[in-house]
Design brief:
With 487 residues, the chain is of the alpha/beta class. The chain contains 14 helices and 20 strands. Strand 14 and strand 15 form a beta hairpin. Bound molecules: zinc ion. The site of zinc ion has 8 residues, from loops.
Length: 487
């Protein structure tokens, strides 16, 4: 048996008002302060570490044997970041002793490597419900805007947990939850709901917000354009999309056809919570109950500004059954200071593995920001695409406009060693056709890519003791070993 604090479950049994008050201050741009965020997170982090230490052999080993946690931030910094692969072997490391599983969710994630099993406990879910109910009641006491109707296609156990959190933030919203991959049946159901005049007391007549995965937002829009859907019938103000990156081209198509704002969400199956694109600064801000850190890929030290690897920690009691403490996301992010009331924010730059990195052990220098190449490639219909689920039933004219461009980035040297004096950054691009058939098109796209690479790498190249060459390798359809679903 693990030692157990007699008050161990107080935080979950009764949601403290002070925690709810702090939380509400932190999600409101008028009352947000960095000091309060630090305070809120310190309370939860201290509790998370204390419980991890008390309830789990795995975490006790990782955190150390300190019985009292004097400074939770200092202790957090001492924990070595852990990868997805480590998580697979240590997937049931509860923060409470009597934990009843409620949801078991098997996820390949968007990378599929390696697949994970995600567990949520009944205690955790009931805490989330009562926390957000309480937060909603506090918001309602100050007078709520008219009830909104939201369609969300993601469930609480999958990416973003959007139903739980949105329901909590606004409390008096109606939610149609649909658990499915994108398909034609779900799309037509949503179109019916979008057009329908709902008769719900005190609520808007029509759906005012849609939250879904990026592929489904694109698929649905393509279908609406194809079928001549009358967008004038819509009352949707925001289209939230997440799970994978959406190119600017599609964001613009959605904004213009729906006449709605697009809001991108960054989330992952492993972490409860999300970061949301801010309408004021355009950057992503994480929810207060997630600690986001950016580590310099070379020194592995935390950085305040610049490009690094995102590390996330989820906090008790928002997570109870599978804590993630310093979880290495393998995603490159930029952290920027901004004048936004919510302070600094983040920008997603792509997967580490697509950054053509120069590596030495686990340290590396990302040479290319995948998102910039992605944006360039997405503009060219010549590039072959990874089809989104559900898009097979669209006609060819649309099928080929809805998926991810297929490309890979590699730095070639002597095994990418830092000692090597000459490096070649190679971008392999899969075309829709045999590149020998349209040489002028291939040359035009290659020129564009050279320019993107030069612009990106120029300042970095000056700092490195290497000669850097660039190479574009055009390939026929099927030329790349695998399709990168996440960039
Ligand atoms: Zn902002």
């Amino acid at each position: 048996m693990h030692p157990r604090d007699s008050n161990a479950d107080n935080l979950t049994a009764v949601v403290p008002d002070s925690l709810v008050r702090l939380f509400l201050q932190l999600i409101n741009p008028l009352t947000f302060s960095k000091e309060n965020l630090r305070l809120f997170q310190a309370i939860l982090l201290g509790e998370t570490l204390k419980r991890a230490n008390a309830c789990s052999d795995y975490w006790r080993e990782r955190i150390g044997t300190a019985s009292a946690i004097a400074d939770p931030w200092e202790m957090l910094n001492r924990i070595r970041p852990s990868s997805r692969a480590e998580l697979v072997d240590n997937h049931l490391e509860s923060l409470t002793v009597q934990t009843q599983p409620a949801i078991v969710y098997h996820s390949g994630g968007t990378t599929g490597r390696p697949p994970l099993v995600i567990h949520c406990s009944q205690q955790e879910l009931s805490f989330l419900d009562s926390f957000f109910d309480k937060a909603g009641e506090a918001l309602a006491a100050n007078g709520l805007p008219k009830r909104r109707i939201v369609i969300s296609t993601t469930n609480r156990a999958s990416h973003g947990n959007i139903i739980v959190l949105e329901k909590g933030f606004h409390r008096k919203k109606y939610v149609f939850g649909m658990d499915s991959m994108s398909d034609a049946i779900m799309a037509s159901e949503i179109l019916t709901l979008l057009k329908h005049r709902h008769d719900m007391t005190g609520a808007d007549e029509k759906v005012s917000s849609v939250g879904t995965t990026t592929p489904f937002a694109i698929y649905l829009t393509a279908k609406m354009l194809l079928e001549g859907f009358d967008f004038g019938e819509l009352a949707v103000e925001t289209v939230q999309h997440g799970t994978t990156y959406m190119a600017q081209r599609w964001r613009q198509i959605i904004r213009e056809s729906w006449q709605a704002e697009t809001v991108s969400i960054y989330s992952m199956a492993e972490i409860i919570g999300k970061a949301t694109e801010c309408s004021m600064c355009g950057l992503l801000h994480f929810q207060p109950f997630i600690i986001a850190e950016l580590l310099d890929p070379w020194s592995c030290q935390q950085i305040e500004e610049g490009v690094g690897i995102l590390v996330l920690s989820s906090l008790f009691p928002f997570v109870q059954m599978q804590p993630r403490i310093r979880y290495l996301t393998e995603d490159l992010f930029e952290r920027r200071r901004s004048d936004c009331p919510f302070s600094a924010g983040y920008r997603f730059l792509g997967r580490k593995e697509n950054a053509g990195a120069i590596t030495a052990g686990s340290r590396f220098v990302p040479m290319v920001l995948p998102v910039l190449l992605y944006e360039e490639l997405d503009k060219w219909p010549d590039v072959n695409r990874f089809p989104y689920p559900g898009s097979e039933d669209l006609p060819p004219a649309f099928t080929h406009a809805t998926g991810h461009p297929i490309f890979a980035v590699q730095t070639i040297g002597d095994e990418g060693s830092v000692q090597e004096s000459k490096l070649t950054i190679q971008v392999k691009v899969e075309f829709r056709y045999d590149p020998r058939l349209f040489p002028e098109r291939v040359a035009a796209l290659s020129q564009k890519l050279y320019r993107v690479l030069h612009e990106q790498c120029a300042s970095l190249a000056r700092q490195l003791p290497h000669t850097i060459d660039y190479s574009i390798l055009p390939l026929s359809p099927g030329g790349l070993e695998r399709s990168y679903e996440k960039i």
